[in-house]
Amino acid sequence: MKQAGGQLAGTQRSVVLGFAIGGAAMMAANQVIAVLVLRFLTDNLAISAGIAATLFALVKIYDGFVDPLAGYASDRARTRWGRRVPFLFAAGLLMPLSIVGIFAAPAWDSQPLLLLWIGVMLALHGTAFSLYTVPSTAMIVEVSDDYHARSSILAWKTYGSFAGQILGSSVPSWLLESWGAGRAGHAAMGWVLAGLIGALALGSIPLLLRARATNAEANHPGRFTDQLRIAWANQPFRIMVFVHIVFMVGVATASVSNAYFTRYVLARSDAWLGLFYVFLTAGNILALPAWLRISRRFDKKNAYIAALAVYGLAVLSWALAGPHESLIVLGLRTTVIGAAMSGVVLLAASMLTDAVRYDFICSGQRREGAFSGFMSFVDKISNAGGLMIMGATLSAMGYAASSTGAAQAQSTSAVFAIRICFAIIPALAPLLSIFLLRGYTLTEPDLVETVAEAPLAAQDVGLDSEGTATAAAG
Fold this sequence. Notes:
Layout: H1 13-43, H2 49-76, H3 85-103, H4 111-143, H5 147-179, H6 183-208, H7 224-233, H8 235-265, H9 270-298, H10 300-316, H11 327-363, H12 368-396, H13 412-436, H14 444-453, E1 461-463, E2 469-471
Antiparallel strand pairs: 1-2
Helix pairs in contact: 1-3, 1-4, 1-5, 1-6, 1-8, 2-4, 2-12, 3-4, 3-6, 4-12, 5-6, 5-9, 5-11, 8-11, 8-12, 8-13, 9-10, 9-11, 10-11, 10-13, 12-13
């Protein structure tokens, strides 16, 4: 793909559309699970909050180990479709099966058997998610060498993700509001979402087949553990890992507690849960072009810090929310959060691709899948941490599970636990992330100067323990 000044070539716009459609599919698949599954388990299947969150977290840990394997496999694959696309196709087939399996779970009386079924279906969902997201993320690094063009590509993928956010959060919430939040309503909703997500995931493949690709290098590290070591040796990447862990723990805690917050703190129906993501997406879309301009004017890191700060302060304001607030107030707050979140998502992803590009410049080796797999692993472990925090907090403060699918009387302490998970913890995470970003120094001039000095051969350059370029002895 040929770009100048961060602009996309017209002949490759279909590839960018493919990234956007795939982003929509995977965001929808992620959101319908993140937003609704935990409440489905506690309020429809009568599974305690602690057990449900622990099951969910254990599956996330499993998913985390699948991610680096997916990256490693896609780095080394050789097929007539290229290295990455076959994995996307497999994901497009498996993802719909997992969604139907979760929300149309068998009506078994045995809770251990039911837990086993849900665990297997969640693991299948996570595997499919890894098989799509890890190789497709690696493709973005391959498709463009331009510092700002990668931000533009990611911006369009992010637009697709915003559409997926509506599809995976608002649409199922409105379907439950219309069809009822019982088991039959969840099953019907699951079939609808599975069909739409499968169609999008498979529909992206013909477009992504046209993307510029790279081949596996002859000197590509053979051992999986070597790839993890190399990823960790890249200092900019390592710093972003720490930042991402902290931030994603907060996001995961907020995501899984949103359905509870809507029902028990705001005392509103699932209609508001659907509207929440409409307002959030509106903020996402309106602010994204501004974040692109800000990142070009003030550099990505500074823009990222600003986005994190606005996000943290806006989320903290949920601590004062309650049934007394009007729809206008709720909508405005959510729109501001969405505006900040678009900057966080876009700039974090763009800075990560810069760190991966830096590895290729320094080493001469193509191992994008190893980096994206490792980052996705971090994502899943962070999500598991957020789920464990949520489950432990609700259990410790007396949340009562049920099988009716409707709101149940909860203690004051249980409602306060939900408020902690939705407002306090997610607000502290971005503020700590800002502190951790101090050591990140990679900028556009750094990359340009490195490219200008050489394309460095793999045998002549490596990464030292601090992730900087070092000439080999002799």
